[in-house]
Design goal:
Strand order of the largest sheet: 2-1-3-7-6-5-4
Order of helices and strands: EEHEHHEEEEHHHHHH
CATH architecture of one domain: 2-Layer Sandwich
Radius of gyration: 33 Å
Number of helices: 9
Structural class: alpha+beta
Helix content: 55-70%
Number of strands: 7
CATH topology of one domain: Beta Polymerase, domain 2
Strand content: 5-15%
Length: 322
């Protein structure tokens, strides 16, 4: 699917003829584009096919490529963005991916984003004085898009923090290994997020060297602020990763202790129940027994069993087995 936004009028088009106009800044949003759509992008912007084809590779890593010798010159920015819970795997992506690549091409006044899922910038930042008004609309949209990426990572890190707190509350009462499996899954997700964040941080710093930002100090300041925000999320996520990894052994020990406590309680109950069971089994023998003909024998045996159980229960309770 392709959407072409005219950055001067704000109108959105779905075809190249109406959307791509000479010397008019545009933003092309490509979500899971077909082979024909990718070919149309190549023919329109004269971007090398290998760069466009690699955009949908799920293993693409964050980086910045400056191509000043291409005609026309362009900048290629690859980032990894959180997939979110709404992402549905396809035949090419069989398992749920924590992050997915998104490729941004800046060619003159045109901005092209190629992504696996809908990830559109929401107008978060506000123009800063008249200097921002004289800036290229495509760069402003890029900054908005980059800030959306930062906000998405902030949300993902907050979710990991909340999930870790919930697991910590459950784990100390759990005797099943299912909770440990959830901790491992959380550790795996945070590892992929951490790798993507560190790659994105490097790409943000590389992007600062682009001429579009070197020539505009005010835009460079905004990009540096976003880089700092993203670095802060990377540092925070690394702390959570350390907490998760250091907690795995502790969680395993807690579950083992909980299981041992449960076994102790069951063993204590079995010991208490074994006393009346033994007496009942003796009087269940088909032989002559004391009080065998007494009409109050049942109550006498019941009281005698209780007298034996009470000191056993008191002893087990005193040594904290029950």
């Amino acid at each position: 699917m392709i959407e072409i936004k005219n950055l001067e009028t704000g109108l959105t088009y779905s075809d190249f003829i109406s959307g791509i106009l000479p010397n008019i800044p545009t933003w092309m949003i490509c979500t899971n584009p077909s082979h024909e759509e990718l070919k149309a992008i190549q023919n329109t912007y004269q971007i090398p096919w290998e760069d466009i084809e690699d955009s949908l590779d799920v293993d693409e890593r964050p980086r910045v490529e400056l191509e000043p010798e291409n005609d026309p010159p362009f900048i290629k920015l690859v980032l990894r963005v959180p997939s979110g819970e709404s992402f549905e795997p396809t035949e090419e992506i069989l398992a749920r991916e924590t992050t997915l690549p998104a490729t941004i091409f800046i060619s003159g006044d045109h901005l092209i984003t190629i992504q696996h899922q809908q990830f559109e910038a929401k107008r978060i930042r506000k123009p800063i004085g008249s200097r921002r008004k004289r800036s290229k609309p495509t760069i402003l949209v890029l900054l908005d898009w980059l800030e959306s990426v930062v906000k998405a990572y902030e949300l993902s890190v907050d979710i990991i923090d909340q999930e870790l707190k919930v697991l910590e509350k459950k784990i100390f009462k759990s005797v099943k290994s299912r909770s440990i499996e959830k901790v491992f899954a959380l550790s795996r997700e945070s590892t992929y997020l951490d790798a993507a964040l560190r790659g994105n941080v490097r790409a943000f710093y590389q992007l600062q060297k682009a001429p579009e930002f070197q020539e505009k100090p005010e835009l460079l300041d905004d990009l540096e602020d976003l880089s700092i925000d993203l670095q802060q999320q990377a540092d925070l996520l690394r702390i959570y990763r350390d907490l998760i990894e250091s907690s795995l052994d502790a969680f395993a020990s807690v579950i083992s202790n909980n299981q041992n406590d449960l076994i102790k309680v069951l063993a204590s109950i079995s010991l208490i129940v074994s006393v009346p069971t033994l007496i009942a089994s003796l009087y269940g023998m088909n032989v002559d027994l004391p009080f065998g003909q007494d009409p109050f024998a049942f109550w006498f045996i019941l009281i005698f069993s209780a007298v034996l159980i009470i000191p056993i229960w008191y002893f087990l309770h005193k040594i904290e087995l029950i």
